[in-house]
Write a structure and sequence with these properties.
Elements (H helix, E strand, L loop, with lengths): L15 E4 L2 E4 L9 H6 L11 H19 L5 E5 L9 H15 L3 E4 L5 H11 L4 E6 L13 E5 L2 H10 L4 E3 L4 H15 L8 E4 L1 H16 L6 H4 L2 E4 L2 H17 L2
Parallel strand pairs: 3-4, 3-7, 4-5, 5-6, 7-8, 8-9
Antiparallel strand pairs: 1-2
Pfam families: Lysine_decarbox
Family: Belongs to the LOG family.
GO molecular function: hydrolase activity
Length: 259
């Protein structure tokens, strides 16, 4: 069995599973569960109670490793998107173009490090000689960092990884994606809305994909008073790579003035 992508030189790689910094292949692939699952699942034996102190240390080590690896990263943009986007799909090409444009503008790109749209953005940035960063996560599928990640960190826990997505970026761009992309989108919006992070933009790239959600936010949530005009203004909807990069550039200049 091989991983869902080929190495850049055309050689196939064996299927692998990552448990944080640990990589297992071939006969070591047996356990289908993940560290997050074992932490959050209340079913099964109760002996997990006695292992929580060790989990705390493991969580601490993930923060230390992430902070250490990313502390000297220059200005960066975090880009979210689907792991299921095929290389032949137009959204993949848009991801490549976006990654390259961000790199040429002097921004590193940070993705989840997986296949699909994440791979496309990493590929565009790497091929444009920019800094291509991937923050992987232990899952029962979609494993391993894509070949265009230049600086990669693997995490066991989603909440640790999400901290890194936010801490080292000055803007977010969301390409079409699924539950994971929506989770990251709304967490990002919540952090900006509640001023937990310095205000910076959240770009929704792909009008045909995001327009229905945007209209619902405006026509239902805002109309019923659940959010305000200022909250909706946190989102920028576009189809244009140059427009998306311009929004990121403007936000970075504003960020520089306050730091």
């Amino acid at each position: 069995m091989t991983s869902p992508w080929d190495a850049p030189n055309g050689e196939e790689r064996p299927e692998e599973k990552r448990r944080g910094p640990v990589v297992v292949r071939r006969s070591r692939l047996g356990d289908p569960s993940t560290t997050d699952q074992r932490l959050l699942d209340s079913r099964g034996p109760t002996d997990w109670v006695h292992t929580d102190p060790w989990r705390v240390l493991r969580i601490q080590s993930e923060f230390v490793e992430g902070f250490g690896a990313l502390a000297e990263v220059p200005r960066a943009t975090t880009v979210f998107g689907s792991a299921r986007t095929a290389r032949e799909h137009p959204e993949y090409e848009e991801g490549v173009l976006l990654g390259a444009a961000l790199a040429r503008a002097g921004s590193a790109v940070i993705t989840g490090g997986g296949p699909g749209t994440m791979e496309a953005v990493n590929r565009g940035a790497s091929e444009a000689d920019g800094l291509s960063i991937g923050l992987g996560i232990e899952l029962p599928f979609e494993q391993g960092l894509n070949p265009w990640v230049d600086l990669g960190v693997n995490f066991r826990y989603f909440f640790t990884r999400k901290t890194m997505f936010v801490k080292y970026a000055q803007a977010f761009v969301c390409l079409p994606g699924g539950f994971g992309t929506l989770d990251e989108l709304f967490e990002s919006l919540t952090l900006v809305q509640t001023k937990k992070v310095t205000k910076f933009p959240v770009v929704l790239f792909g009008r045909s994909y995001w327009q229905g959600l945007y209209d619902w936010l405006r026509g239902t949530m805002m109309a019923s008073g659940k959010i305000g005009e200022r909250d909706l203004a946190l989102l920028h909807l576009t189809d244009d790579v140059d427009d998306a990069v311009s929004v990121v550039e403007e936000a970075y200049r504003a960020w520089e003035e306050t730091h």
